[in-house]
């Protein structure tokens, strides 16, 4: 029984890992199209990617649109989250539901809507159009991450700051915001990734001018299955990998850095004796 | 002379629920006052109203004759140590202590020097650059104290600051807080539900119950001369026995359990003959013996339960319908067994009378 | 002098609305309006009326696509469960190190874009790909093409959505108090009865969460079925895109989009009545 479970486990792990691993050797292939095993090793497709404006432009478009989406999303969601987590008011339930709704609507439905709506606003094929659409789609996940962080925030800290002489505004800037910073960064990261990976809406509205990387990849896969995609996939995969292990590595580095030996609490011990 | 801090007629209602009912209290400058009471008795609410985090429904609070009405918490110049210290996790010990000075526009060099002095006073020199999570509970406590004192507040409020510490550390901190408070002479209000803490630290104890002040008196008075049955019951262990006054002039009462009893008369309310009262006898004021002791009043009882604490023991005996609790030295209990008949002895001085 | 309640209360009630207003306005303009436009188009393009809905609900092609979508989503959900449950169980019963390694792998898969993972399956299942190569090496002389079939798109969707299932079940399983299992064992439960009476009910919330999430995402899935699936067995999202891009049939595409949306919302609504919606993505 145990042995059987073990093999099932190994099988599932291979199933999950194989597609993540397979693109890496393919990106270094010399073959003109997808072929396994790769006939030879080269950096040919990497060189091609970094020299081809039809790939680089969508990459920059995606980075730009992702950054703009992140800024806009945060500007809208941060105050709203404070309102929803910290205040009780009439209509709160509806507001909460409204913020989660974009997550429940299939992207293809929104894509049809944006295609026609932005068509009438002359926002199709523009960076602004994609940013506006992506911001809407980023709201729920950003809100979820942020509200979880805000709910965990100990409000006694704000009372403490007030008792120590800080005005509400000073309390917000010196205490609340710095303590929430990690949560803010993570929710901003979620907004960015949501935009950077978003494919369906971008296919419909980004057009030639604001073409995003996922749209370019989608078109390329549909038409010719250009092996350059293996390069991009490898790079994106690497980015995720680094992003995930970065915190662990940073922690290890910090730990191994020279640590000043901490002073022994002599006086404390003395007082203990005094008490006893 | 006007008192330093004055609470007059403070009321607080949350909807229909009355959390505080007509609180009146005067505190002298430099006094260490403890608010003692079970949870929900209104002691923390009172503290929060003084600090400015809650508004009183009615009533006034003044410090040196100046009303606190309309002042935001940051304008009150009151230092607070919160239950879980509320140290800013993104600031080092030094930065935490510097914060109130920073808010008061003190220059960095001077502020840091003051912060360092304060950390030294609480015994934390050498820990200035550690973050709260790198400090032990007791050390965090000290930082919180330093932070609440560094700006020379008019009043120091301590909201159950020792609750999270283990027993030994708590005793050490009690002594430490008292030492620092005396040295700086800051008027202090300490909230706790732990009566030993209240006893050992306070100049005066204010006992809260159900949103009212039951008694405000020095610790030993609260223990030996409680004014209400609640205080007698809440503080320390007690034997409370029903009785009727036989003669108020002579200080004699009839007790169905103990027979005729003489009681202490100091500071009692006016009693009249035939009045129903309760007699308070602390368990440590009773003595057990096989034969009645001379020069003592005594009654016989049956030992029901013996609870050993090592250095002493609690003997619970029964006489008729009543339980009688007796504290005996650990050595004396060895010869005693459950079910034994014995005598319980007391002197007149041990009996205190309470209005029903 | 009396400390009375200040008239702060009035301002306090306005404050959350001020904080919420920009986002509310934004969502009204860029979420509700476009969504409304889809609903509008579905009953006005090309003529005012319910023609589009009649076509979508009665036309054999459209009906087949919706039924196909529904069954594919159900199949993917079941497969995700079959993959996810054993793995989550193993992660809870192996060494800390291995569990962390598997968790890292799943998180990595989760964070890798749908498109990259879809592409990876094309590479794996391609005619010159490793799977065909492996089959050929072990003796299948002329293996059939598996790319662009219902099988390949289903397989890829299971892979793409499995992390949602695994994470949901794993987090619930991890919270089960081991003492509970031990006490069940001490009372004589073991093997299948232990599983059925103790493990399964305790992990049910995770299963429900994961299943609804996978099912709902799968209903609206566009990228993977379009790129990997059989052109003759489209799913709803693909057909909607097709109507808009190829035939500029906005009315018909919108009507299908609305039907898809309603089905999705019904599933979520049923779920939220039992569990509450905010738990789903939390």
Automatic annotation (TrEMBL), chain A:
It is found in: Cell inner membrane; Cell membrane. The keyword Cell inner membrane applies. The chain crosses the membrane at residues 7-28, 63-85, 97-117, 129-150, 171-193, 228-250. It comes from the Bacteria. GO terms for cellular component: plasma membrane. Coiled coil: none annotated. Gene3D superfamilies: MetI-like (1.10.3720.10). It is a multi-pass membrane protein. The keyword Transport applies. Keywords: Cell inner membrane, Cell membrane, Membrane, Transmembrane, Transmembrane helix, Transport. Residues 59-246 form the ABC transmembrane type-1 domain. InterPro entries: MetI-like, MetI-like_sf. Signal peptide: none annotated. Pfam families: BPD_transp_1. One of its GO terms (biological process) is transmembrane transport. Belongs to the binding-protein-dependent transport system permease family. This is ABC transporter permease. It comes from Psychromarinibacter sediminicola. The lineage of its organism: Bacteria, Pseudomonadati, Pseudomonadota, Alphaproteobacteria, Rhodobacterales.
Automatic annotation (TrEMBL), chain B:
Residues 5-235 form the ABC transporter domain. One of its GO terms (biological process) is quaternary ammonium group transport. InterPro entries: AAA+_ATPase, ABC_SmlMolc_Importer, ABC_transporter-like_ATP-bd, ABC_transporter-like_CS, Mo/tungstate-bd_C_term_dom, P-loop_NTPase, Transp-assoc_OB_typ2. Keywords: ATP-binding, Nucleotide-binding, Transport. GO terms for cellular component: ATP-binding cassette (ABC) transporter complex. GO terms for molecular function: ATP binding; ATP hydrolysis activity; transmembrane transporter activity. PANTHER family: SPERMIDINE/PUTRESCINE IMPORT ATP-BINDING PROTEIN POTA (PTHR42781), SPERMIDINE_PUTRESCINE IMPORT ATP-BINDING PROTEIN POTA (PTHR42781:SF4). This is ABC transporter ATP-binding protein. It comes from Psychromarinibacter sediminicola.
UniProtKB/TrEMBL annotation, chain C:
Keywords: Cell membrane, Membrane, Transmembrane, Transmembrane helix, Transport. Pfam families: BPD_transp_1 (PF00528). It is found in: Cell membrane. Gene3D superfamilies: MetI-like. One of its GO terms (cellular component) is plasma membrane. Residues 66-271 form the ABC transmembrane type-1 domain. Its main location: membrane. The keyword Membrane applies. SUPFAM superfamilies: MetI-like. Belongs to the binding-protein-dependent transport system permease family. CysTW subfamily. This is ABC transporter permease. It comes from Psychromarinibacter sediminicola.
